[in-house]
């Protein structure tokens, strides 16, 4: 480099060079730049051209999870109105658990008998603990009024929906490496607290046990099951989502007309308006990259 | 630079007009080359003082040996010099040192001949010669005056000031200092009252005790940086030792005062003292025998019952042990008499205060306990009634009603009714069981109160106070137990909530490194944590309301015990003998000194009373001034040494500081933190209530009686010495 400097030393003015640690170059100001400064700049290098149909198909998984949460809230409502009794609730629990396992068995690539046994053992422990704790949950909020409980639950559910990790699932398939993020933990926490609050308004202990088990099953395992289905076959996922949306809209229609309209508007907004919006604003995207960026790792450090 | 000379002159010498010249005894101290301190302890008439040379040397040495060692290290007691006074017929002071022959004649006429006076003549030759004949005679004088050939010549004068108490003030004629004759000095005559034991003394005092309300100017700080010219501590120590030096010297010289106190009054006083000493010694021995017996009895048994009782009545037992050791040690402390420290009045005062501290505190406590006990004994019935009424009221209206209130909707809190009912029923049952037990105890309560009164009469006031403290703790055991239970519940709940909240943030507490570590938890842990977190959080108000209620009760009890403990500590720590002496003679507690200037003649400015001074000055003195100072007169300052005195707070506070040293900001903060987190019950004792306890020893009873008798009887000698001085 030194040789370079001395080599360029000619009767003509020396050329300005871009160096990081060179100090001031003779004949130039400290903040001098010339036209070669932005030569290496790259514009919109990582921008992906999006297709509106693909975006709409991707957004289906959001509305699908929204549907699942809405179904859970509907079950809560029906239980509080005593439309569903505890026996049918327990039946629902068992059937959901069996269905979930069935789907997992079908879709997962590598499942050993030991892992399955471990999973069953954990779930049985969990159910037993929940059954023991249900008397405590039963009397937890007796002195608090129902309105505040409902308000708290609604805000917690909205928090849960906002912070939910829609791309993957909080509960990983056994043997997964990545740990859940802080946001998804908060979201899971909010959903559990909300279900406990709702459960504490129920008339009997068995009710409490059944509803807590049901909501925990859904909130914990539904994302995992949906993720597995999506990975197994996108078409199946699409069909399943459509079916769930239709069922949800049907139940909402029977419950209240306004909820139905609200839900429908929401679906339209999520699945049609938002993708269109995204494509529209895509053309304003402008990002620059250059040699000033910090280095990025192009491989996973854990491997 | 002109040298400075300070003469510390006892005011008693100036009180009367001297009839003849006299010799001065005292100390030379010189902290630097340019300053000289001459502390005059006493004077001795030329007429009455006629020992030979070796005798004087021995007397000086022995006198010096009798003084305190720290003073001996700094300066030695020596023959200072001579204060001449020659009243001629016309009433004027005659020049000394002007005419050599005349001086010698004067000495001859005044004193008898002897080897010492031969020496004195030699000596006089030195100082009277006007510093012309410093030849071989110095060697001679150094035999008497040690390695330092110092000699002071003072003359009678007044420096233009005469007061009612001060008839005359000496003037410096000249000084032989390390073989040189110097007469040009900035003179500072400081008149002091000779400190006497029991009357007053001087103390330099620490600078913290002297309050300086104003901000110090810069020159004060510069002054502090300079090396002090004056070694004030040794000078003050010398001043304080003046009287004992005088006494010792007079005893050695043999000029005995007639101190015959032989009369019928004296005999009566002695007899009374003997009777008193016998009475006190017998009483104390009786207590001592009982305590020794109890000690043997108690130390023998190590059963479960004894240990439990020891825990329950821990405060009382500690108190009784302390009182036992006081009873055991007071005669030993009173008898303890270090003669060496008595020579300096300051040390003697301190030793006396220490000597009398223990028995005075025992006596005061016994007296207070006697008052308390008698009052309690005659009002035992009403006290008993009041105590049982208040106990009933507090149990019914405070505890039971409070628990029932907490089981409902206290202060609008939305409690979990099931948990509140469980806790409330638990508390009510415990209260019921305990009050049933105390109902049976209540029938013997009157005897307990009477026993308390008797204990107060016998042991002093702090023992029943400690017993009351223990009984309060015992009677409120149910509250303590409930508080302990609920505080455990509360603290575990708080800790679990904190742990869960850390879990949700992906952290965990590492107790080994004392920091937060990141923690990758599994989803199972998260769900279990979340399922437990919700009920714990929702049940927290119920637990905390009960915890607050019982904490308030327990804190009130603890605070009551704490105030009793503080009162006990204050009663123990108060220096009664100091307070009494301070009330009677505040001059015995000096703190710092100051100089009251009564006359000042600076060298730059002509003194105001120049005419009067020139009248009194002899021509020779005038000539000496004019010749030696070459135009500038040496400045003369006459002042009286006065002391500041401690006020009552300054006396008492050092004793209380130890008691209250526990109560600091951090102590309060840690207590509050402990109360809020439920981990620490507020303490019921300070922990430093007791001064250092002395070990328990066994002295034969007869010997103990003898020690008591001797020590009390020795006080008579002290009292006699006080009155004699």
From TrEMBL, chain A:
Protein family according to the UniProt entry: Belongs to the PIGC family.
Pathway of action: Glycolipid biosynthesis; glycosylphosphatidylinositol-anchor biosynthesis
Predominant subcellular localization, coarse grouping: membrane
Presence of keyword Metal-binding: no
Chain ranges passing through the membrane: 59-78, 90-108, 115-137, 208-229, 236-253, 259-279
Membrane topology: Multi-pass membrane protein
One GO cellular component term: glycosylphosphatidylinositol-N-acetylglucosaminyltransferase (GPI-GnT) complex
Protein name, as recorded: Phosphatidylinositol N-acetylglucosaminyltransferase subunit C like
Gene Ontology terms: biological process: GPI anchor biosynthetic process; pollen germination; pollen tube growth
Subcellular location: Membrane
Domain of life, per lineage: Eukaryota
GO MF annotation: an example: glycosyltransferase activity
PANTHER family tied to this protein: PHOSPHATIDYLINOSITOL GLYCAN, CLASS C (PTHR12982), PHOSPHATIDYLINOSITOL N-ACETYLGLUCOSAMINYLTRANSFERASE SUBUNIT C (PTHR12982:SF0)
Family matches, as InterPro entries: Plno_GlcNAc_GPI2
Pfam families assigned to the protein according to its UniProt record, in alphabetical order: GPI2 (PF06432)
Keyword annotations: Glycosyltransferase, GPI-anchor biosynthesis, Membrane, Transferase, Transmembrane, Transmembrane helix
TrEMBL record, chain B:
Keyword terms, alphabetized: Membrane, Transmembrane, Transmembrane helix
Transmembrane intervals: 260-280, 286-309, 367-388, 431-449, 456-479, 485-505, 526-550
A single BP term in Gene Ontology: GPI anchor biosynthetic process
InterPro entries: PigQ/GPI1
GO CC terms, sorted: membrane
Top-rank taxon: Eukaryota
Protein name from the UniProt record: N-acetylglucosaminyl-phosphatidylinositol biosynthetic protein like
